[in-house]
Structure formats: C-alpha cells, structure tokens
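for the record, two folds in this file. i put them one after another cuz i was lazy. first one right below, seq on top, structure tokens after. the second one comes after a little note so u can tell where it starts
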Amino acid sequence: MNYKCYGHFYSSCELNFRDLLLITDLEDISDDIQIDLLVVMMNPGNSEPKDSNVRATIFSKPCVLTKPDNTQSQIMKVMGDNNFRTTIVINLSDIREPKSSLFTRKLNRFSFGSFGEGHSLFSESRCDELNQIIERCKASSVIFASGVNYKLRFLTSRAVSKFETNRIVGNKSKKGLFYHPLPRSQEKQQEWVKGINEQLKRVIS
C-alpha cells in the first residue's frame, strides 16, 4: 500500500506544533472517512509540511501533505500487515521538537507559564477536541507508543485513562510505559512491529 501523511500544524509562543496526523492510502479524503486505527505517541518530533498546496480536511482541521519519517514508516508497516487504510496519530504533546532533552525542557516551560497544559490534547482545556476524535475512532483499535520517558508518566497515565483497557495495544516496559515504535536497532524495530501485530490480532478477533 502507498501511504501518504497529512498533518495539521500551528504556531504559538514562538514554537511550532502539530496536533493531528492522518496516514492513509486513500486518494479521495473526506472529513467522514473511516478510521481503522488510532495511535498515541509522545510528540511530533521534527514533523513538517511537505507541500502546503496539497490539502485535506480532517476533523474540520485543514491538513497539508506532510513529510513521513521513520517512526511513521513503522506505523505504516503495521497498517500494511493488517490491511488498514487509514490511521490517525495524536500525541501526548503537540510540541515539534526532535531532541528529547529539549522537549522535556519546553514542557516545563509551558507547565509553569501562561500556556499551561494547552500543548497537550489530553489537557482538560481541550477535552471537547479530544472527545471528537475519540468518538470518531470508537470502533478502532488504539496503539500506545508514547515512549518510556519517566518524566512523561503522568501525561501517559492521563491519556490511557481516556480509553477502554481492552482496546489498547502497546509494547509495555516494566514501569508500565509504552515503547516507541523506532528503537535503535533494526532487530528491535522488527520486534516492535511483530509485538503490535500479535496484540492487534487478539483484539480484533
């Protein structure tokens, strides 16, 4: 399957954000497309638009064609293995920052500033926005792949609480956090995909 990515980007407080990513092989993209899978990850990293002239509207948000990265390629492998056509990716935080040390610093800056927790789709101030996505994805399996950074455990716990336990799949650490889709070695990357596929088969069946 030939997948493309579409993201919704915005800026605030001199920082860049992405709050929504669509991965699909559909050419005709409408606001009411069927969602096969919902994925929750840590943050958008270095995600950026590829072509702002190629657009799609998702959850009433204007999204543009987006450069796929290796992490998204892992999600695409899972999609292909399970014949999924459309996936929505959301994150614990919308902040676009590829370096984890800088990312956690920026989180602290927001938590103690006027912006508060608004960087997170899972904050109380954005519950209506999140509920719209959850409602549209109520028939979808949910993959958690939000990383094992212990500093994010409270955000992870809050995000997990929004979903029924029997819908959640993810490769868990001993501390109950969820491994990122792109570990450093190729062997571990293959293990991540295999583990997710095995869990999806149990959930779907």
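(here's the note) second protein begins now
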Amino acid sequence: MTISNAPTLFKEKRRKFGKKKPEPAPEYSSVLYVQMEPQEVRLFRYLLEARDNLAYTSVIDRWASVLKLVFSPQQKEELIEHLSDMQASVNFKIVPFSES
C-alpha cells in the first residue's frame, strides 16, 4: 500500500441528513394554557422539557397553577401528542381562552 492510495481506502462515508427543505420561520408563536394542581407543576415542566425545544412555559397564576405554553405553530401536532402522553403521569387540563 502506498501513501497515494491511502485516502481512497479509508474514505469516510458522508451522512446524508434529511433532504427535506426547512420550513420558513413563523411570524408569531402559538400559545396554550394548562391548569393543574400546584404539586404537579414541577413534574409537568420536567416532562415537557424532556422534549427539546418543543415549548417553553411561564407561570401565569401561581395560586391557580395556570401555565402558559409558547410553541411554534408548526409543532402543534407534536405538542398535542406529547401532552396526551404526559396525561398518564400528570393530571392537567387545557384551559380554553378567546383571542381578542
């Protein structure tokens, strides 16, 4: 084996990551409100953060344990699916709201 053909013998395969064209960034984020028992908030946030960058939370009313979830509208189906999976561990309900 000569040095000249060494690169061809050990040629690395390049990984081809998804060929799907990325979607354009949305102009606005979507919002969802959830309510639960105060002792459930910590577990809810922990389980939600287990899915990287799916949504972030803010506590809106600490006495009523209402959390605001902010997420990309392009990931709404994924978020709803994850929330339904979380229902097995945390008891919460989605609070309806009207946009003004």
